[in-house]
Amino acid sequence: MFAFLKSPALTPRLHRLRESALFAALTPLELRTVDSVLHERSFLADEIVFDEGEDGQALYLVMAGRVLISRRQESGVEVVAELSAGAFFGDLALLDDSPRSAQARAQGDCQLAVFFRADFLALMETDAVIGYKVALALARHIGQRLRDYMSGNPQVDAL
Fold this sequence. Notes:
Layout: H1 12-19, H2 28-35, E1 39-43, E2 48-50, E3 58-64, E4 66-73, E5 76-84, E6 88-89, E7 103-106, E8 110-116, H3 117-126, H4 128-150
Helix pairs in contact: 3-4
């Protein structure tokens, strides 16, 4: 009846974004807005996404494939997490540019959506509702990681 009132159908890419806890609260229109500032990157197997100690400048969302998160230890390299489609990592980089506390490496060929801090900050200025929703989801995610760490059950404790 009123076709202009219907929400536009989500593309497979937008469905993948909505599956992420970071963007789950966004409407289809808000997802499209966020998608417009994300950058698509492909990585080959064993290619480093970022290295431990590098300045953090972006959050990464796994669109396809798998990513290994590891840290150097005195006894060698410790695998912290293996992330698959829908997971995100490097989230603290949206908040500041402190050095990465772990390395991210493509386990196999993978596609990542990259959300740069500058784009996130600009989005917060131009669309406060979207910025609020993403920032709240980010705060909840970081809070859960802190609670997990404090209870002695850390997941991906610091990226």
